[in-house]
Structures are given as structure tokens and as C-alpha cells.
Amino acid sequence: MSEKDALIQPDRGQKAIAIHLVDKGGLDEFRKGLNGVQRAALDAHRFAADGYDYAIMPDGEGWAVVSGVADAANLSSWCMAKLAENLPAGTYRRVGGEPGAALFGWITGQYRFERYLSQPAEEGPRVLLTGEVKAIETIAAEAEATLLVRDLVNTPAEDMGPAQIEAEAESLHKEFRTEIRVTRGDTLEHEYPMVHAVGRAASRAHAPRMVELEWGDPRHPRIAVVGKGVCFDSGGLDIKPGSGMLLMKKDMGGAAHALALARLIMQARLPVRLHLLIPTVENAIAGNAFRPGDILRSRAGISVEIGNTDAEGRLILGDALARAGEGKPELVIDFATLTGAARVALGPDLPALFTRDAATADALLAAGEACDDPCWRLPLHDGYREYLKSDIADINNAGTGGFAGSCTAALFLDRFVPKGIAWAHFDTFAWRPAAKPGRSKGGAALGLRAAWHMLRARYGETS
């Protein structure tokens, strides 16, 4: 994005509309510095410095904005996002300080998914000036990665099938000169049998595949990023009700997160050897669909009894995680819209985080809190492994008893990650059922910034 088109730009003293950020503790002092007309304008708005509350007041021959924030000294990513959504097009500047973290929400607050609208909104951008010039590129990259996730998840399955997921990876390959490998057809059935089994009932246009990218200096620490790419989930022969399919275009949200994180890693030239893996399928229904009771072999050699064809995401991830482990990475991170149980436990805002070690968990949780992308750790409780027992195979893909659904799904994945590798699993919703400032209704990146900030802190960036 050119500076001319950017929503955040360097402050070089351009003419701009003033924005005053005021918290409740500082409101009285702020009012003392206003003239009578300005105070009357705030009174007319009943402005009390509540969060996201804002008012317009006269300012010389023009006007200025006063907005309430929780803490004017410690801004959140979202505290100016409502302004970015609602103010007229123009150029703005915060008075008395820098926007800081609020730069992120200023960009994401202006997101609109308009691909299918015959008449998209014709409104100009709201540009925010900042003296923190070095932060512009970093914040813009994070925001663009977040918006990439939104775009991919919001796109209906007919236009976002396995071929389109492959095309997104191909775009990264061309931009960053990666190594790329796409496995399909008979080779897929041989090398990634569970990916093939889940996706084989789909039409030829939505045929299953495994997409892999490798990037970076092989001498650098090796990490793997894996994303669940179920582009539509009917439930298979254990078919979902119609209401359960309405949001299943978002079941490739894990792949969207993985693609976005890979872009951030490569864009920042993080000193790692990156291995991106996206198993991508459509879980469809046809005469050759896999069945309840089938026994699938896996890349890892583990036999899997199918207790439920609607627990398909863990199957394709199992093959991908096994492949990731073959490269002996020091860290594996996967993203998946894996279980409704995680949403029952944590709601739509918090991704469920599972890790093998406390250090990885602590780093991810701290990173998430610091960048307004909170996660919540759930346990890989060994006592629940018995729920996945099978009488005729090594493991069952569906837990029995109805308890701890997100935990048993994570324990299933744990079987396919070789021992001794640090592993983090995000069971993310990838969707926002209602809009909040800076966070539109629809596709959502949940856990992406937490993972990115952790990786950046752990590995640092090259100059």
C-alpha cells in the first residue's frame, strides 16, 4: 500500500482535524481548557468520557473531536476504532500524544466486505497521522494480515474452495520466492490418506489437496504453521442440520490464520525456517464418502476408527501435523475451527489454547494480552485420553460421553505430533457474530496477533 493510500501516515504537520482522547479522570481538567461554546457543545452531546463515546465541538473555523477512552495513558487497539468507522472522510491527528496501539483499530475499523455488493459504499478514507513513523509499517502489516483472514473467511465456499486456498499459497510463493509443493489425487491418497478420505466425495472442482510452503534459511530454527482448510463442512454422512451449515464457509478459518501468519513471518523476514502446511478439503456427501465405522490409516501409521464424519478437521490435521513433525521443528503452531465445545466453554471472543508446556502457553497468553488478542488455555488432560479409545483401531476420532469435547479433540491431535516438539493448538472460532468497534461482524482473526507477537519476541526480526 502506498503512503498516499495508507490509512495511517507520517505526521509532517499536515492540516488535520484534532482528536482529543479523554478518560473520566481527566475530563474536568480537559473542560477547563475549553471556551464556553466548546463546553456547551460537550454538554449538548451529554459527553461523559465513556468508552467509545464521542462528541463534535467547534475548533477555530473548523471542528474537533472529543472521544472517551478507558485510560488516556494506555490506549487499547480499539479505543479509536469507532471514530474510524463513523467520522467523515478526512485527515485526523491526536492532540497531546501519539495514537500508539490505537493505530491498529483505526485500520481495521474501516474494513468492509463488499465483494458481492453491486453498489459498494462510496466514502473516502479516514487518515490518521502519527509521529511514530517506525510503527507504521509494522502495524499496517498486522492489520492487513487480519483483514486477509476476514476476506478469506467471509468469501462463500463456491469461491473459496481448495483450489482458491492453493491460489492464496501460490501468491505467497511468488511474492516471497518460497518452495511450494501441492499434493493431489493418487499421490495424496498414498501420502496423506486421511486428507484424501475426508475430501474424496467433493466434486473435481473442489478436490482435496495438501499445500506446503517452505521459506527461510535452513540454518535458522525450524517452525511449522498448520491450518485446517475445510472449505465447507456438510458434516459428511453424519450430516449437519441446515442451520448448522449456515456458517460452514468459515471452517477454513484455520487455513486463513495460517496463511496470514506465514505472510507476517516472511514480510518481517523473521530469522526462521518456516514450513507452512494447509490440508484443504470439502467435507461433502456422495457415494464414495467416508463412513461412520470406517478405519482410516494415517500418514503417522496410526489407525483411526471413524466415530463421526463431522469430526473431520482433526483427521486432516492429523496427517498435516505428522508431516510437520518429520522436519523436526522446534515449534509447531496450528489453527483450526475445530470444536463447538470450545465455543460453549469460552464464547466467540476467546480462542481455546492448548500447549504441551507452560512456557509456550505463558508466552502466547502474555503476547495476546499485550496486543488485545486474548486467548485462554485449556488442558491436555491425560485422563481424557480414554474417551478416544477404540476396540478395533488405535484411536477413535470422536470422543464418547459428550464431555470435554475441545480437550479430546486436542488430545487426538497430540497423538500425531512427535514427542519432544513444542506444540500449540488454537481452537479458534474465526467469526464474530456481532460487530464491535474495529471488529466487524463476520470473519475474524482470533489468536493470529497473539501467535505473531510471541514469534516476534522469541525470534526477533532481521534488519
TrEMBL record:
Q: Which domain of life is it from?
A: Bacteria
Q: What InterPro entries would the database entry show?
A: Leucine_aapep/pepB, Macro_dom-like, Peptidase_M17_C, Peptidase_M17_N_1
* GO molecular function ontology, one term from the record: aminopeptidase activity
UniProt KW keywords:
Aminopeptidase, Hydrolase, Manganese, Protease
Q: Which family does it belong to?
A: Belongs to the peptidase M17 family.
Q: Which PANTHER family match?
A: LEUCINE AMINOPEPTIDASE-RELATED (PTHR11963), PEPTIDASE B (PTHR11963:SF20)
Protein name stated in the entry: Leucyl aminopeptidase family protein
| Entry-linked Pfam families | Peptidase_M17, Peptidase_M17_N_1
> By its UniProt entry, which CDD domains does this protein fall under?
Peptidase_M17
